Amino acid sequence: MEELRKKWERTVESLVRQGIIRSEVVRRAFLKYPRYLFVPEKYRKWAHVDEPLPIPAGQTISAPHMVAIMLELADLRPKLKVLEIGTGSGWNAALIAAIVDTHVYTIERIPELVEFARKNLERAGVKNVHVILGDGSKGFPPRAPYDRIIVTAGAPEIPKPLVEQLKPGGKLIIPVGPYHLWQDLLEVVKREDGSVEVKSHGGVAFVPLIGEHGWEE
């Protein structure tokens, strides 16, 4: 475990040097919850490599640089209410929780991954993340509105329910584009009058967002 830790610290240092991790809160979160705590045991020795890795149900855990980019775009601060769509391994939710230091809600549609994420979060000692089984494209109305919504799967368009569940001044980070190949990473800011401002932050490649307001399965 000590060797895994050292390799992970070097990865974090590299992301800082490259200017991908820009804030101290994201750097501290990455050091608090290393990626090797959230991947299947047989892949732990590669957890420090800046590439996606397989997790159960044919899904992937994102490359560290991609996770860092989305967290920096989200501009997270303590006490913000955050909804994550696409729990996967639970790693991103753990990082969010480390920064906001309050309850984080995350939705996953695949039961096997709900169980996988819950076990990972428990083993890592994360107590303020709530993993919900459901269609993330519809958001999670019981806890709305949110300061931030972070989507870790590619949608065909910006799902209206997610915009509706944002607070005025809130921000949605979401990949939007084709089912396969590249999507645009969008930053969607909800204005006080309910309209939105959309900024693109370049090409990304995510698994598809499956659901009523996403892609058909």
> Strands of the largest sheet, in order across it?
5-4-3-6-7-8-9
Average pLDDT for all residues = 96
Question: What is the general shape?
Answer: globular
Please trace the helix and strand order, writing H or E for each element. HHEEHEHEHEEHEEE
Estimated structural class: alpha/beta
Briefly characterize the structure:
The chain has 217 residues and is α/β, with parallel strands linked by helices.
Features:
single chain, 217 residues, alpha/beta, seven-stranded mixed sheet, two-stranded antiparallel ribbon, 6 helices, 9 strands, 25% strand, globular
Any overview of this molecule?
The chain is an alpha/beta fold. It is built from six helices and nine strands, in the order H-H-E-E-H-E-H-E-H-E-E-H-E-E-E. The strands form two sheets. The chain has a seven-stranded mixed β-sheet with strand order 5-4-3-6-7-8-9. Helix 2 packs across helix 4. The longest helix has 16 residues. The mean pLDDT is 96.
SSE order and pairing:
Elements: H1 2-17, H2 24-32, E1 53-55, E2 59-61, H3 64-74, E3 82-85, H4 91-100, E4 104-108, H5 111-124, E5 129-133, E6 146-151, H6 160-164, E7 166-176, E8 183-190, E9 196-204
Parallel strand pairs: 3-4, 3-6, 4-5, 6-7
Antiparallel strand pairs: 1-2, 7-8, 8-9
